[in-house]
Amino acid sequence: MKNKRKKRNRKSKNRKHYLSIGLILVTALVLGVAGLASWLPRKEEARAQEEQHETSSGSGLEEGQVTHNGQVYEYNKELKTLLFLGVDKRESELTEHLPGRGGQADCILVFIMDPSDQTIRTLQISRDTIVDIDVYDISGEKFTTEPGQITLQYAYGDGKQKSCWLMEQAVSKLLYGVEIDGYFAMNLEGFSVATDLVGGVTLTVPEDYTAIDPAFEQGATVEMDGDLARKYVQTRDITVLGSNDGRMERQAQYLEALAQKMTQGGGNVVFYTKMFNDLQDYIVTDMSADQLAEMSDYEFTGTVKAPGETRAGEEHDEYYVDEEALYELILELFYVPVQQ
């Protein structure tokens, strides 16, 4: 890979530690999973500069192409991407806050939709990933950039559209300029509501998680309502290094269980529209109920995590992506090899 990015400054000076919300997978799946065939308008402007770092006059590459280890790759323009954010915010609505107090995006997922075969792959990004955070003052003006956990970028918005936009920019930059087409943010209370609206989900507990709830014995098959599911995907021991990694694995498991549950619903338009309306107080999105209702036939084909490692920071866990491995994953997920 030519002209690699400079290594990110890995020193984190993060704030107050939360027992994070983790995944609000339920609603992303309910409202954004059954397929995204036509709702997201395809943005036509060029990909971000960083993604295009090898495309220049005289390079022999066309727009949207990059080269890695002698192989030319071209961005798959048919793909659509949805950023899902699970927001840790201890109130019933996503409302405005001062910059730095807008909540934290503790669950970060990128749904990658491929219309050619109607499949969805999910890319998980650790909330502890260290990136350059844009810091804003009380008037909403950007005044500096400093390294910090990516979850904190949400806080420097308004707790609504601006926070989601800031996260879009942070995620896109982390992913070498991959464009994000839409966003869906949901807070803690909405997660429980959504789970109950679909009638709960059933899954088998892979390890002993009785420290979270007595029902979570290894090998137990548990029918989870909203409150129980929230515990399963939210709770972690913040005193244990890398506890978020295990929680992300549980979140992925829950996503698969919910996907199976949702396929039983047959993509009923009335059901999806009603659910969207019932969750209006808990969500921020640039999607409409009609757009959500168009989702029907897509199938999940797996979840992958942005590669890297967790290290102990001065105050909190810090996750550092493996630059080379991440770039190769981006090529796998978003590009196709060009025949030479």
Question: What would you say this structure looks like, in words?
Answer:
The protein has 340 residues and is of the alpha+beta class. It has one domain (25-36, 80-321): LCP protein (Aminopeptidase, 3-Layer(aba) Sandwich), CATH 3.40.630.190. It contains 8 helices and 15 strands. The protein has helices at residues 25-32, 161-174, 188-197, 226-234, 243-263, 269-278, 289-293, 323-334, and strands spanning 65-68, 71-75, 80-88, 104-114, 119-125, 130-136, 142-149, 182-187, 201-204, 221-224, 283-285, 299-305, 308-312, 317-321, 335-337. The strands form 5 sheets. It has a 6-stranded mixed beta sheet, with helices on both faces. The chain has a 3-stranded antiparallel beta sheet with strand order 1-2-15. A hairpin with a 5-residue loop joins strand 6 and strand 7.
List the total number of helices: 8
State the CATH topology: Aminopeptidase
Strand order of the largest sheet: 11-8-3-4-5-12
- Work out the strand percent: 25-35%
**Whole-number count of domains:** 1
Percent of residues in helices comes to: 25-40%
So what's the CATH class? Alpha Beta
SSE string: HEEEEEEEHEHEEHHHEHEEEHE
Low-confidence segments, given as residue ranges, are 1-58, 91-98
Largest sheet, in brief, is: 6 strands, mixed
* End-to-end separation: 18 Å
For the secondary structure, the number of strands is 15
CATH superfamily: LCP protein
Identify the CATH architecture. Answer: 3-Layer(aba) Sandwich
Domain Cell envelope-related transcriptional attenuator: 105-263
Organism: Candidatus Dorea gallistercoris
Family: Belongs to the LytR/CpsA/Psr (LCP) family.
Protein name: LCP family protein
